[in-house]
């Protein structure tokens, strides 16, 4: 298991949840579904590395949601376990401010302290009909005491566009019961550096067992690509509860040796 795998899977809780957003039947409207009122909540996950008989906790994550009138703030905290800190120290905080009506983002920020490196990303969204633009700013420090470098960019997309945190909540508005195995849709995801295209394939319903507890779930597969069709991130599977509010209970990515799973904790 490499440090990059730990980093990717800790973030995957949010990155993969976005795939639920457009996993509905093609006959449905392309726009957001009926607004969903989500109460204040906190969800916790453990990140497990599995290879043969080895099944070890490598990291953790917590996602907090706080609504306040027309807007809501959601924050993802993620980190490596003490034993993994010795190999690759990771503490990330991802924040989004979004509309409570349809959970589309207005502002996204990521602050990362990873293996001595510091990073901060800021994304500000603007919408004009079906066109979405964003101004972004990226800060990077390669090591403690090094120069803090800055880079700005502009992103643009046509169609539904989210960030890596707001997607988790926007996804809950989708009518999963109307999905059919094999159906696919594509949406946009903005980070501070690039836009990705996400192809979502619904794989059917399954029962998932975690820590002696069973969940009835929808199984969904994800493929991340650039506009040119080149794969930009690892393929990952996720399982979300069939019961509202459709919490993601399991995320899984295959490695060259073993696999990593993100599992919902009680």
Labels describing this entry:
266 residues; mainly beta; 9% helix
Describe the structure.
It is a single chain. The chain is mostly beta strands. Helices cover 9% and strands 57% of the residues. It has 3 helices and 15 strands. It has helices spanning 3-17, 82-85, 166-170; strands spanning 41-51, 54-68, 71-80, 90-99, 105-114, 117-128, 131-141, 149-158, 161-162, 184-190, 195-210, 213-225, 231-241, 248-254, 259-264. The protein has a 15-stranded mixed sheet with strand order 8-7-6-5-4-3-2-1-15-14-13-12-11-10-9. The protein is globular. The two termini are 26 Å apart. The model is unreliable at 1-6 and 10-34 (pLDDT under 50).
Radius of gyration from the alpha-carbon trace, in angstroms: 18 Å
Series of secondary-structure elements, N-terminal to C-terminal: HEEEHEEEEEEHEEEEEE
Q: Indicate the overall shape.
A: globular
Largest sheet entry: 15 strands, mixed
Share in β-strands: over 45%
Q: Indicate the structural class.
A: mainly beta
Distance between the termini: 26 Å
Mean pLDDT: 80
């Amino acid at each position: 298991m490499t440090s990059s795998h730990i980093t990717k899977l800790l973030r995957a809780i949010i990155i993969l949840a976005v795939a639920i957003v457009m996993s509905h039947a093609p006959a449905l409207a392309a726009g957001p579904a009926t607004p969903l009122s989500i109460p204040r909540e906190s969800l916790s996950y453990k990140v497990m590395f599995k290879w043969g008989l080895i099944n070890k906790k490598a990291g953790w994550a917590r996602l907090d949601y706080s609504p306040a009138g027309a807007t809501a703030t959601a924050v993802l905290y993620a980190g490596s376990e003490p034993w993994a800190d010795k190999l690759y120290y990771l503490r990330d905080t991802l924040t989004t401010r979004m509309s409570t009506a349809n959970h589309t983002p207005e502002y996204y920020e990521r602050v990362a302290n990873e293996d001595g490196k510091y990073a901060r990303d800021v994304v500000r969204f603007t919408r004009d009909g079906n066109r979405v633009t964003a101004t972004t700013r990226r800060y990077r420090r390669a090591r403690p005491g090094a120069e803090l470098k800055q880079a700005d960019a502009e992103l643009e997309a046509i169609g539904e566009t989210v960030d890596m945190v707001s997607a988790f909540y926007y996804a809950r508005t989708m009518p999963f019961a109307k999905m059919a195995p094999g159906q696919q849709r594509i949406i946009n995801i903005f980070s501070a550096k690039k836009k990705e295209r996400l192809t979502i394939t619904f794989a059917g319903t399954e029962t998932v067992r975690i820590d002696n507890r069973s969940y009835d779930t929808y199984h969904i597969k994800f493929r991340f690509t650039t506009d040119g069709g080149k794969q930009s991130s690892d393929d990952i599977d996720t399982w979300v509860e069939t019961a509202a509010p459709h919490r993601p209970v399991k995320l899984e990515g295959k490695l060259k040796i073993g696999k990593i799973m993100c599992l919902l904790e009680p």
